[in-house]
Design brief:
Blueprint lengths: L6 E4 L3 H12 L8 E4 L3 H11 L2 E3 L2 H7 L2 E4 L3 H11 L8 E4 L6 H8 L5 E4 L10 E7 L5 H12 L2 E5 L5 H9 L1 H18 L4 H21 L4 H7 L6 H11 L2 H26 L4
Parallel strand pairs: 1-2, 1-4, 2-3, 4-5, 5-6, 7-8
Antiparallel strand pairs: 6-7
The structure holds NADP nicotinamide-adenine-dinucleotide phosphate.
The site of NADP nicotinamide-adenine-dinucleotide phosphate (NAP) has 26 residues, from helix 1 and helix 4.
């Protein structure tokens, strides 16, 4: 279905590049079928040289020339960008947004009644083809458009279709998710150094521990709780560590952090709607 589709990545920063790179590597479409836009000419030259794609600083030109428009700008600028390009959309296109908090209804208020809008929340492991990308359809989306989203985002990992009312929570859980784990790993490296171990050794130990633990979570049917129980002998070293974390209410604090991220996603969506409300 995507064989001949032209894909425009509007706002090709970190996620935009990860996605277009994944699409090219997975041969979903060829490089010449992709155009990327952003404001920096230097960054566009890099994208052209690295990936062999077309580039432009003109968002309207990008929207007019492509069949699938992938919106990858920050949520804070989405309203202004959409207001500029709104007259350039035409029936037959599909719009996909990866912006945190921005609803399909908000995007549809610019794109009109004939263009299907899909909202997706990938995450940073897209860079290594291991993202998880939940997606939902807006008012005019159909099974055919769900397939388009699924094909594109399968290039950088796994996809799952969800309801839109889950998206802000999903943004907080898996969109932000890698950062929680990176933070934990940072803390472990610092703890190792505080005990007198050399920096390079701490990094090597923590990196392989993270990789091995992630592989266990993915490759065994056991839940994280079951795996943790398996390495926690009564009165042993892990038991002492877990008791301390429970005493310090580590899980409650982590849940608090995830709720903060969910609330921020909601705020970003509300702020965009308020700022760009024509009334
Ligand atoms: N990073 C993540 O882990 C992640 C995960 C899931 C979803 N997302 C979503 O992905 C989106 C992008 O995030 P990111 O981390 O990739 O941010 P980013 O690296 O800052 O990319 C955004 C890009 O938009 C470009 N831009 C800004 N204004 C523009 C305009 N008027 N016209 C065209 N391009 C414009 C910027 O380039 P110039 O300054 O050159 O214009 C920038 O490179 C956000 O909406 C975010 O919510 C991110």
């Amino acid at each position: 279905m995507l064989d001949k589709a032209r894909i425009g990545v509007l706002g090709a920063g970190n996620m935009g590049e990860a996605l277009l790179g994944g699409i090219i590597k997975a041969c979903i479409v060829e490089a010449h079928q992709i155009t990327a836009s952003r404001r920096s000419e230097v960054a566009l030259a890099y994208l052209r040289d690295t990936w062999g794609i077309h580039t432009t600083t003109d968002n309207c030109e990008l929207v007019k020339a492509n069949d699938i428009i992938l919106l990858a700008v920050k949520p804070q600028v989405m309203g202004d960008v959409l207001a500029c390009v709104a007259p350039c959309f035409r029936p037959g296109q599909v719009v996909i947004s990866i912006a945190a908090g921005i609803t399909t209804a908000f995007i549809e208020s610019f794109t009109g009644n004939e263009i299907p809008v899909i909202r997706v929340m990938p995450n940073m492991p897209a860079l290594v083809g291991q993202a998880v990308s939940p997606y939902c359809l807006g008012t005019h989306g159909s099974a055919a458009q769900a397939l388009v989203a699924s094909q594109i985002f399968s290039a950088v990992g796994v996809t799952v279709q969800v309801e839109e009312d889950m998206m802000d929570a999903i943004t907080a859980l898996s969109g932000t998710g890698p950062a929680y784990l990176f933070y934990l790993l940072e803390g472990l490296i610092e703890a190792g150094k505080a005990m007198g171990l050399p920096d390079h050794l701490c990094r090597a130990l923590v990196r392989q521990t993270a990789y091995g633990a992630a592989k266990l979570v993915v490759e065994t049917p056991r839940t994280p709780r079951q795996l943790r129980a398996q390495v926690t002998s009564p009165q042993g070293t892990t038991h002492a560590a877990m008791e301390h974390l429970d005493h310090e209410q580590f899980l409650e604090r982590l849940q608090g952090a995830v709720l903060k991220a969910r609330d921020r996603a909601r705020e970003l969506g509300r702020a965009a709607s308020t700022r760009n409300d024509p009334h």
